[in-house]
Each structure stands twice: as C-alpha cells, then as structure tokens.
From TrEMBL:
Belongs to the EMP24/GP25L family. PANTHER family: TRANSMEMBRANE EMP24 DOMAIN-CONTAINING PROTEIN. This is GOLD domain-containing protein. It is a single-pass membrane protein; Single-pass type I membrane protein. The lineage of its organism: Eukaryota, Ichthyosporea, Ichthyophonida, Sphaeroforma. GO terms for cellular component: endomembrane system; membrane. PROSITE patterns: GOLD (PS50866). It is found in: Endomembrane system; Membrane. The chain crosses the membrane at residues 134-155. Residues 1-74 form the GOLD domain. Its main location: membrane. It comes from Sphaeroforma arctica JP610.
Amino acid sequence: MSMSAPYAYQVTDGGFLDIDMTIKEKDGEILAEELRSSESSAVISAPSDGRISICFGNKMSSMTSKDIMFSISGGKTQQIDTGTKEEQDEETKQMGEQIQDLFTKMLTVKDENQYMSSRELQHSQINEATHANVLYWAIFQCLVVIFMSIGQVYYMKRFFEQKRMV
C-alpha cells in the first residue's frame, strides 16, 4: 500500500536562504531531492508504508546557521466510521467523502497560513532593517549638509574679509 503526504519548507533566516533537502525511504531509496532551494512544497509519494527520513543539509554555507520552517502532514488520514456496508446508504458515503475532503482542505489551509505568517515575519524583518538603514543615511546626510554650511560660511567670511597693508 502506498503512502502520500504533503510537505512544505522555507528557509527563513541565514546565509543566502538556500539549503539542500533529501527525502529517503526506509531502504535508502531517494523519494525527493532538492539542492540550494529556499522554499518548496510538494507531496511525498512512497511506494510502501513505513518510516521515511527527511534530511536538510547545509554543506554549501556551513559557517552560517539556518532557520527553517517545516511542515508535513501525516500520510494516513482518519477514516470516518459510518457503520457496516449494509447500513451505509449513498448519502452517508457522500457525506463521509465530503467530510474527509473538508478535513484535507482544512489541513492545507492551516499549512498555507503557517507559510504566510513565516513570510510576513521575514518581510517585516527586511522592512525594519531597511527603515534603520534609511534613518542612518538621513542622519549622515543632515550632518554633511550642516558641515558644508559651516564650511561655506567660513569660506565666504574669509573671502570678503578686507586685509589692510600698513
């Protein structure tokens, strides 16, 4: 019996925001591999049930630590017990399928919400750093203008100063 599970990850801080990711089955077979990726989302499809290993590698920039937001939904979903086969009618089957579909979509919305909140955090950090840089540059420009003004006043005063020779 095969297993499928959606996953998503994003590098939120560190270096160039890239990382290597490998997903292996219990026998070592590689199910998915991505190199130097900053974010990804897909569905793992394993041909058999069992444990899988997910490995993140930081070989390219081992001196820089990385922060990763990672989410994976379990491969097995809960099945709703609607009674024996004889007791189930068509409406009950449809309702069970709709509830299962709704549950899957709710998990997807939850994952997307986590992804968006991590992106919001990342962009607010960039925004705050940019505001700080603009503030420092504006202060520097004000100081340059003040010193230039003082220099010009001094120069003009010396230029119009009358020197007498006696």
